[in-house]
Design goal:
This protein is mostly beta strands. The protein is built from 1 helix and 4 strands; from the N terminus they run ββββα. Strands 2-1-4-3 form a 4-stranded antiparallel β-sheet. The longest helix is centred in the last third of the chain and has 7 residues. Bound molecules: zinc ion.
Length: about 80
Amino acid sequence: MDAVVRVWALPDVDTQHDAIPPADDTAKEWEGSTACGIVGMLRWVHGETVDRAKTCAACVGAVGTAPPLEGDDLGPV
Ligand SMILES: [Zn+2]
């Protein structure tokens, strides 16, 4: 099961959002929507760049502060 990934909602590369990863997981940018409902071009934020302090508050509320545990049932996708 895929966890959410951290993304920037372009052109804002300050606030980091959570989003469902792209179908092509080699894509660095893709058209999609964030957990807080922004639709547009998303850019993958890689591990070393992820900054919890810059996490979008609305996304934290939508997804929760802890990553989904393996085995959690997120329902049909
Ligand atoms: Zn957000």
